[in-house]
Amino acid sequence: MTKPLVKEINGFEYMLYEKKTYEPAVALQHSRDYYQWLDRRRTVRDFSDRPVPRELIENLILSASSAPSGAHKQPWRFCAVSNPGIKKEIRKAAEKEEYESYHGRMSERWLKDLQALGTDWHKPFLEIAPWLIIVFKKAYEWGEKGEKTNNYYVNESVGLAAGFLLTAIHNAGLVALTHTPSPMNFLVKILNRPDNERPFLLIPVGYPAKDVYVPRLQRRPLEEISEFYE
Description:
This protein has a four-stranded antiparallel beta sheet. A two-stranded antiparallel ribbon has the order 1-2. The chain has a two-stranded antiparallel sheet with strand order 5-6. The two termini are 40 Å apart. It is 37% helix and 17% strand. It is of the alpha+beta class. It has one domain: NADH Oxidase (3-Layer(aba) Sandwich). A hairpin with a 2-residue loop joins β1 and β2 (12-15). The longest helix is centred in the middle third of the chain and has 22 residues, at 84-105. It is built from eight helices and eight strands. It has helices at 24-38, 54-64, 84-105, 108-114, 125-128, 154-171, 186-190, 222-225, and strands at residues 6-9, 12-15, 76-81, 131-138, 140-142, 148-150, 175-176, 197-206.
């Protein structure tokens, strides 16, 4: 008997889910290959101004939006900016906050930890990168009658979506930087976002500049990041 593609459970529609699975040896190889591919992802601060098609950015955002979220509320908004004037305005506001951070807000320990990354308050990539994707978290929604309705596990949900986005960027042969000027409220004003949206991440996206060098850092080994209970 053929199974129905859609069935009702507790008054809601459910669809038949099919997932390709692998034998252990094949699954192990897939997991190894995926890790080795993803381990090549790096944070890049030197971008080319080579154009990136809007359709590509749209696909990246759709990939990010496939992330799980609390009660499937999908409490995110991705604002993609390629307009040079808006990028310039964002850079100016971001550098203002970053200057304050590097000249008083950050502790000496924090500044020391950043030295190996070669970063400072200057953020030219905010204008050079062809796209900026600003990830906003939606603290709540507005109901049909103008009432506030809850979103759940907002930070966790948007964090997962951001991770999906970075993976999609890497998969497309592009590079990115997770930029977090603090505070980031200037993004709400510049992009004219509603009161229920709060800036979460500012991500420049594009192709790497020619002959880019990145810090030769080591990721922590498995034994330092995991515990197994068997």
